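Q: My hope is that you can spare some time for a protein that puzzles me. Underneath my words sits a plain record pairing an amino acid chain with its backbone structure tokens. Those tokens are not coordinates but codes from a learned vocabulary of shapes. Thank you; the sequence and its tokens follow:
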Amino acid sequence: MTPILLLIFGAAVFFWWNAARAAAERAIQVGRNACAAADVIWLDQSVQATGVRLRRNEDGRMALERSFRFDYSYDGVERHTGKLVMHGDRLVSFVGPTRPDNTAEFRTLN
């Protein structure tokens, strides 16, 4: 009985690790694309996992929601931290660099 339990436990650990790596790869892709779109420097070329929790998806089933952080810089000197939350392979929250809005213009009135 013990070898079967060890095999089941090993399979569960493998699937957990595989799902975590897939989510991290997707988070890397989202962070890299956001930094490229905002024309900022993506620092360290990686994301760091900051949390995991259970959350219901659209059809009511429980699924894992993973949080990641990444660093970026506008000028190569100051470091800023961005955060993204993935629910499965879907992005549900993003805080980070944005494309500068060139439509707003500030003028002083004389």
Q: What stands out?
A: The two ends are 86 Å apart (CA to CA). The CA atoms of residues 19 and 41 lie 28 Å apart. Residues 103-110 have pLDDT under 50 and may be disordered.
